[in-house]
Hints:
It contains three helices and five strands. By secondary structure, the chain is an alpha+beta fold.
Amino acid sequence: xxxxxxxxxxxxxxxxxxxxxxxxxxxxxxxxxxxxxxxxxxxxxxxxxxxxxxxxxxxxxxxxxxxxxxxxxxxxxxxxx
Length: 81
C-alpha cells in the first residue's frame, strides 16, 4: 500500500503505474481528511465501506457535497501534475 501526504505527494505517472498493476484504469484510494493523507493501492474497501455507511452514505461515492469538495481539494494537493 502507498501513502501520499503533503510531505510525500504522488505523481500522475505513479498513479498510472499503480492502476496498470491492479485494475487497469482505477486506483482504490481512502482519504483521511483530518490527517490530510491518502492511502492508495488497496485490494478491498470493505473496512472503509462500514465507516461510510455510519455517516449515512449509501453509495460508493461521497454523497455530501462539502465532503466531496474537501476530498477534491486534498487530492489536488497530493497528486503532482
